[in-house]
Amino acid sequence: MTVLIILGVLFIALVIIVPLIERSKFRMSNEQMGKLGRWILPLVVIMVIIQLVMHYVN
To answer: Mean pLDDT score of the chain, rounded to an integer?
Structure first.
């Protein structure tokens, strides 16, 4: 039952959030996306390392 509640909340959130994002005037330039993209892979690697450490410590 909990899974159905979680799925329902996620579905309702998507129905509400996606139209709001589409209407927003927020746009990013290619320069801004490039700067953010440069940080994504290192942060993902750090997150994976932390998760591995937490898994083996517990």
So the answer is: 92
